[in-house]
Write a structure and sequence with these properties.
GO terms for molecular function: DNA binding; DNA-binding transcription factor activity. This protein is mainly alpha-helical. The chain contains six helices and three strands. The chain has a three-stranded antiparallel beta sheet. The protein is globular, with a radius of gyration of 19 Å.
């Protein structure tokens, strides 16, 4: 593991972090505004979007996929379940595993609003060409995986 870096490398990394953070905040604002316009907080919308795009999820997977602590997941799931957007279902093969699934109301609602959300996200990234978007996807995955790997060294 490399422990020494030049001042140029340090300055570049700090600049990159600041630009990355600002860009993330700017793009995230589109999603936050979208979720609020549809009556959800960003976390609730993120759970609905995950279930809509990826299908039923184990409760503990929702937290890790959305970077939430388990107490927040439980609160959000409870609220969405109370409003009949999702329901919990026990895994018949593993009684310890509970899945969250969209109800018909949740699915119908997402059928209506998800295309609008997808268009807004497309617009948020429209300053980049398709090729640049693909490059950014690859670079962010690479940076994220490498950074995550370093945490466990």
């Amino acid at each position: 593991m490399r422990l020494t870096y030049t001042q140029e490398e340090i300055d570049r990394a700090n600049t990159l972090f600041k630009i990355f953070a600002r860009a993330f905040k700017s793009v995230s604002e589109h999603s936050i505004r979208d979720s609020k316009e549809h009556g959800f907080n960003p976390t609730e919308f993120a759970v609905l979007e995950l279930l809509y795009t990826k299908g039923p999820q184990k409760l503990q997977q929702i937290g890790s996929r959305l970077l939430l602590v388990s107490g927040n997941v439980t609160y959000v799931i409870d609220k969405l379940e109370k409003n009949n957007y999702i329901f919990r279902e026990q895994d018949p093969k593993d009684k310890r595993s509970i899945y969250a699934k969209l109800t018909d109301k949740g699915t119908n609602y997402m059928d209506d609003i998800y295309p609008i959300h997808a268009l807004r996200m497309t617009r948020a990234f429209s300053g980049l060409s398709a090729e640049e978007q693909e490059q950014l996807i690859a670079l962010l995955k690479k940076a994220g995986l490498h950074s995550q790997h370093l945490l466990f060294r």
